[in-house]
């Protein structure tokens, strides 16, 4: 299994951050608006986590992808512009982080369009990348995204390299990931939402991510890390990411780059 | 407790895989067909995980047992011929991964018959083994297994060496299993199904599996690992299996056997 990347590149890696902030909780249940502890735990993401992550990216000279719900973009337009100004990618992630599989077609279209519109307004640019909120796409989602000119989506889980999805509205590249490459299952703890994760140590999470990287690197595949500033942005949790980055940088021919760039590189070689 | 095995074998090991694909999710709830993240996560098993696992088993020259729901075999008709070519065993694991304890007798018979028909058509041979989906047999399952000509079941948990069920005078071998020798409790994660495993580190799981082996080896028992390509087929998890295999083969007198071989041996010895 060799040769899906151009040039000498052996393996591609995307560091992706879903800046859900409050939207993930309000989207689950609007009553969370009245739970300040939940709301502030969420706002830690854009307020403290994103700046810390941006500094880490600068330190290692890496470009990342930030998947931003429209609601977050409306609340933090300056942050969206700051992310772009520092050379990172901004991509779509719904409006209120609603799960498409739980919506009617009309509701899904409304959340999708409203989210893209709000993010494009804050970003001042067309959005061409997407990650479905909640890891719960509908059977219509890929077609709706293609219809809106989205070049790639990163939500499905049946591979660890990009592949093409044909829809009745044209093609869309899929950049698959897996829950084991998401920070939420290891670290998230929100008792008000009945979410009590195992509270893993950063070292144990880094070991999982590094072991996964080693296998994908050997096979020349693609590693999509899905993190959340309200989770990984904490000073302890971010060590899992930094340890993983340090390990990846010891290997030759690893391209740690934006999801858009990975889609483009893959299309250039395989499209 | 000496001498369960012949030819100086101290401990028998089986590496088994339940190739559930989407069947385990559709079997829980047909609505998962409308959750493409869940179904693609499951399809990673037959599509990406299984080839990676087969390469690993070939590398260590280990023959394993593959429990294949009929639904997976229908959707991936190349799997069973490939497994047989490589010397692995094919065994029954329901049709759409139905848990027998949740079925009435007619439904349980249909799941058994449909799965058998598909596996025997694709493999061209009798299928001697059964592992119940979700390890949840009904009070009538063992009777039905004898009626349908199975040699062994691998679903119960009250020992760590084989034993024999007396089913109305017929002998059915049991190859017992344990949840801590299954990958799913450590790594299964599917929030839409309410499954939120701890996502243990590969090292932690390797420690558990190796500790269990060390005691079973000392006592001369039987070590049966139950893995899922959609879970253990990811590189980090496969490293746990590989490290466990490397540990096991560092000991003398270990025999890797397929479940059908273990059951046949046990029944031929006349053991109870």
Would you give an account of this structure?
The complex is a heterodimer of chains A (271) and B (272). Chain A is globular, with a radius of gyration of 17 Å. Chain A is α/β, with parallel strands linked by helices and 271 residues long. In chain A, helix 8 runs parallel beside helix 10. The model of chain A has no long low-confidence stretch (mean pLDDT 97). In chain A, the strands form three sheets. In chain A, strands 1, 2, 3, 10 and 11 form a five-stranded parallel sheet that branches. In chain A, strands 4-5-7-6 form a four-stranded mixed sheet. Chain A has eleven helices and eleven strands. In chain A, 44% of the residues lie in helices and 16% in strands. Chain B is an alpha/beta fold. Chain B contains eleven helices and eleven strands. In chain B, the strands form three sheets. In chain B, strands 1, 2, 3, 10 and 11 form a five-stranded parallel sheet that branches. A four-stranded mixed sheet of chain B has the order 4-5-7-6. In chain B, strands 8-9 form a two-stranded antiparallel sheet. In chain B, helix 8 runs parallel beside helix 10. Chain B starts with 10 loop residues before the first strand and ends with a helix. The interface between A and B is medium-sized, with 37 and 31 residues.
Helix-strand blueprint:
The complex is a heterodimer of chains A (271) and B (272).
Chain A: E1 11-18, H1 23-28, H2 36-59, E2 65-68, H3 70-75, H4 77-85, E3 89-92, H5 105-123, E4 129-130, H6 141-147, E5 152-153, E6 163-167, E7 170-174, H7 184-187, E8 189-190, E9 195-196, H8 202-219, E10 222-227, H9 229-232, H10 238-248, E11 254-256, H11 259-270
Chain B: E1 11-18, H1 23-28, H2 36-59, E2 65-68, H3 70-75, H4 79-85, E3 89-92, H5 105-123, E4 129-130, H6 141-147, E5 152-153, E6 163-167, E7 170-174, H7 184-187, E8 189-190, E9 195-196, H8 202-219, E10 222-227, H9 229-232, H10 235-248, E11 254-256, H11 259-268
Parallel strand pairs in B: 1-2, 1-10, 1-11, 2-3, 4-5, 5-7
Antiparallel strand pairs in B: 6-7, 8-9
Helix pairs in contact in B: 8-10
């Amino acid at each position: 299994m060799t040769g899906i990347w151009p040039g000498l590149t052996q393996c591609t890696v995307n560091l992706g951050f879903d800046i859900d902030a409050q939207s993930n909780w309000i989207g689950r249940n609007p009553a969370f608006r009245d739970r300040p502890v939940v709301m502030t735990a969420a706002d830690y993401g854009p307020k403290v986590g994103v700046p810390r992550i941006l500094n880490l990216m600068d330190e290692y000279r890496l470009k990342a992808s930030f998947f931003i719900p429209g609601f977050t973009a409306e609340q933090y337009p300056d942050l969206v512009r700051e992310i772009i100004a520092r050379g990172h990618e901004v991509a779509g992630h719904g409006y209120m982080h609603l799960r498409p599989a739980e919506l009617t077609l009309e509701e899904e279209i409304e959340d999708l369009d409203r989210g893209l519109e709000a993010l494009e307004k804050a970003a001042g640019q067309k959005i061409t990348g997407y990650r479905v909120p909640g890891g719960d796409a509908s059977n219509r989602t890929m077609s709706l995204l293609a219809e809106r000119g989205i070049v790639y989506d990163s939500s499905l889980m049946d591979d660890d390299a990009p592949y093409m999805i044909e829809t009745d509205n044209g093609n869309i590249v899929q950049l698959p990931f897996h829950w084991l490459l998401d920070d939420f299952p290891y670290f998230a703890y929100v008792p008000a939402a009945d979410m009590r994760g195992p509270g893993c140590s950063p070292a144990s999470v880094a070991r999982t991510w590094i072991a996964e990287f080693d296998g994908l690197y050997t096979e020349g595949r693609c590693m999509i890390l899905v993190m959340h500033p309200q989770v990984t942005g904490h000073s302890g949790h971010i060590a899992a990411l930094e340890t993983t980055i340090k390990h990846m940088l010891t290997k030759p021919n690893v391209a740690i780059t934006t999801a858009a760039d990975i889609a483009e590189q893959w299309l250039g070689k395989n499209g | 407790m000496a001498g369960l095995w012949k030819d100086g074998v101290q401990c028998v090991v089986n590496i088994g895989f339940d190739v559930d694909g989407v069947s385990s999710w559709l079997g829980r709830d047909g609505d998962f067909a409308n959750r493409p993240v869940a179904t693609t996560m499951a399809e990673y098993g037959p599509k990406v995980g299984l080839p990676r696992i087969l390469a690993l088993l070939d590398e260590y020259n280990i023959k394993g047992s593959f429990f294949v729901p009929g639904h997976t075999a229908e959707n991936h008709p190349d799997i069973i011929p490939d497994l047989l070519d490589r010397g692995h065993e094919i065994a029954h694991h329901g049709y759409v991964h139905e848990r027998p304890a949740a079925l009435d007798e007619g439904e349980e018979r249909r799941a058994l018959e449909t799965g058998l028909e598909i596996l025997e058509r694709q493999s061209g041979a009798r299928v001697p083994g059964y592992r119940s989906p979700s390890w949840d047999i009904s009070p009538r399952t063992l009777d039905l297994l004898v009626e349908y000509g199975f040699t062994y079941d691998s679903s119960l948990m009250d020992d760590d060496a084989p034993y024999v069920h007396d089913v109305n005078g017929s002998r059915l071998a049991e190859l017992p299993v344990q949840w801590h020798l299954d990958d799913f409790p450590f790594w299964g994660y599917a929030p839409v199904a309410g499954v939120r495993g701890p996502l243990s580190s590969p090292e932690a799981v390797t420690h558990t599996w190796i500790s269990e082996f060390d005691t079973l080896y000392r006592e001369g028992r039987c070590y049966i690992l139950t893995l899922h390509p959609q879970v253990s087929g990811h590189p980090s998890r496969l490293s746990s299996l590989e490290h466990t295999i490397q540990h096991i083969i560092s000991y003398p007198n270990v025999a890797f056997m397929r479940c059908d071989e273990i059951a046949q041996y046990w029944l031929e010895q006349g053991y109870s």
